[in-house]
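Weekly puzzle thread! Below is a chain. First person to post its structure in token form gets bragging rights.
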Amino acid sequence: MTNPGSYKTVIKAYDEAQTEIQKYFPHFTDLIDRYRWDVVVSYVFARIEFAKHMTIYCGIVKLHQTDADLSWKAVTGDYLSRTRFRELFRTIFGKHISEPLLKKLESAEAVRDKHVHGKPVTPANLRKALVDTLKFAEEFNAFVYSVAQFRPFADLRGFKGAGKSLPKSTTRWILKGMNFQLN
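Winning reply:
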């Protein structure tokens, strides 16, 4: 997508996003109305990072039947870099995230990184990053649903179903096999 020309274009992209995406980013339009673009980008990326953690957590618990509490501690205690997220995703879900999907996120991440590291970023680039993240969230939801039947950018109640979890002792071995550092 070319750079959105104004805030109206960004709000239109949000309004056209799926309902679950709008609910996942509930403060999106309010922040646009009240704050500078960099504040909105910070908010959106905080929510994206949370969705990444939830993707890994839900995948481990749902697909590998691990103990929820121990899995949560492992995931929240992990430094989930971009590379680590991709590696864990492949390990847990048995699939790579497609390059076109990653490109949408990488483009927005590049803008975010410049902003966070004090480099100049144009409002047009910040607007484009916001629109790209909305598209990424929709497409990532569809992809994860196709491989694991849950959507990370949505309400995750009931994501696991009624399955029984493995004991903590077995969960520890599974998490160690995924290269989580456990205390």
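Puzzle host: Confirmed. Bonus trivia for everyone else. The first helix runs from residue 7 to 16.
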